[in-house]
Amino acid sequence: MEIDFLNRNDFSVDWATLLFVVTFAAIVITRNAFPNRFEDFTKLAFSNKYLSTYRDTNNMKSTFNISMFFVQMVSISLFIHYIISLANFSELNSFRSYVRILSVLLFFVLVKYFIEKIIALCFDMEDFAEQYNLVKVTYRSYLGLLLFPIICILFYNNIQFDYFLWIVLGLFLLSNAILFFLLLKNYQKLFTKFIFYFILYLCTFEIAPYFILYHWFVVSKT
């Protein structure tokens, strides 16, 4: 009598499935609650109508932006979790690792936002900072919305490809670069008016933090 012992497969992403369902529900509810706005938002890469219509900085705290910000945080945090799992720094099915990533991301974004507010107040450029943050959050929420179905597909497929990590990272960075170019193109008059402060702001808050994170995660780990 022979007994064969089989390894038990304990891989489970039920927590991710629940998170995908909640996020998708948030998108559907937002779509039904703001049909015209959502339609203009989905055309952000091809039309400037959305930013022209909802340019008031009070929209920063609107229900629509809060919902899209939630989608953005979920998409980007899951994307980072997926990339880190491909690099063998964590397990894809680890909910604890994902919570840590989401917490760090939220902390990073919120602290960065409040520091920007303080700097803008010191330099008497609150209007510029509010307008820039509104546009930046809008474009990144748009990127998060586009990223959501992609990460849903990637999360449930075991992809074995040596260069896949760099391809995914490259596409993500390219998308960010394109959206940033569109931001500069559509609001060049506003940036030209505060060119010195914008360069200082760009170097301090848009380049330095990511360089520090890269050095911490990549250089310090090697």
Structure description:
The chain is mainly α. 76% of the residues lie in helices and 0% in strands. It has helices at residues 14-33, 35-42, 49-53, 63-86, 95-122, 126-155, 164-186, 188-193, 195-219. α4 crosses α5 (95-122), α5 runs antiparallel to α6 and α6 packs antiparallel against α7 (164-186). The N and C termini lie far apart (50 Å). The model is unreliable at 4-11 (pLDDT under 50).
Layout of strands and helices, then pairs:
Blueprint: H1 14-33, H2 35-42, H3 49-53, H4 63-86, H5 95-122, H6 126-155, H7 164-186, H8 188-193, H9 195-219
Helix pairs in contact: 1-2, 1-4, 4-5, 4-6, 5-6, 6-7
In short:
By secondary structure, the protein is mainly alpha-helical. It has helices at 14-33, 35-42, 49-53, 63-86, 95-122, 126-155, 164-186, 188-193, 195-219.
